[in-house]
Design brief:
Largest sheet: 5 strands, antiparallel
Shape: elongated
Distance between the termini: 9 Å
Strand content: 25-35%
Number of helices: 5
CATH architecture of one domain: Roll
Strand order of the largest sheet: 1-3-4-5-2
Helix content: 25-40%
Radius of gyration: 17 Å
CATH topology of one domain: Thiol Ester Dehydrase, Chain A
Structural class: alpha+beta
């Protein structure tokens, strides 16, 4: 486990989003909003095409936190997110994260991170904060 310090960057997750992934997420989640899965309907929307479910994209943030913090993320992690812009089929979504603060609490530390997902255009699709408790005694 690394020695976490403010300013450290987290290892990102990079994914190209496909309509097939969006359709599978609709099946898994039960969210069949036509904006996600119906091309003719979505063409008439403000977006002009289908968009990915926000939670499909947010899942990559949990994946990033799991890659960086391992089991500690799965035991104690939590996020607060803001959905800023849609992600479209064909977009490349890249997570980002930086340690903002390390709060020492006896044998544990709470790691506070600024996190988000960017589209290949550089536009933020999601921004937020994540917190995770890590053991500081080995």
């Amino acid at each position: 486990m690394p020695n976490w310090i403010s300013g450290m960057n987290l290892e990102p997750i990079i994914k190209t989003i496909t309509q097939n992934q969006i359709n599978k997420y609709a099946d898994a989640s039960g969210d069949f909003n036509p904006l996600h899965i119906n091309q003719p309907f979505a063409r008439k929307s403000q977006f002009g095409r289908t968009i990915a479910h926000g939670m499909l994209i947010a899942a990559s943030l949990s994946e990033m936190m799991g890659v960086n913090f391992g089991i500690d993320w799965h035991i104690s992690g939590r996020m607060k997110l803001r959905f800023k812009a849609p992600v479209f089929p064909g977009d490349t979504a890249t997570t980002f994260g930086e340690v903002k603060e390390v709060i020492d609490l006896n044998s544990k530390s709470e790691i506070v991170c600024v996190i988000g997902v960017k589209r290949q255009t550089g536009e933020n699709a999601i921004t937020g904060e994540a917190r995770v408790m890590v053991n500081t005694i080995q």
